């Protein structure tokens, strides 16, 4: 899997952990635990890349930053 930056934070509004891959516009997932949010964003990243390739859209190269937890 590519090494995209992932940011995970708690949403008081939704009462879940939210995970974002900021290098992939709109690539967001959530989960009741940090672990589940991380699993879900990894699935979302794979789907984002698959769909971009299917439509011939560019897929950004990961910048290689570390995982971040806020």
Automatic annotation (TrEMBL):
Residues 4-63 form the HicB-like antitoxin of toxin-antitoxin system domain. Pfam families: HicB_lk_antitox (PF15919). InterPro entries: HicB-like, TA_system_antitoxin, TTHA1013/TTHA0281-like. Coiled coil: none annotated. PANTHER family: ANTITOXIN HICB, UPF0150 PROTEIN SSL0259. This is HicB family protein.
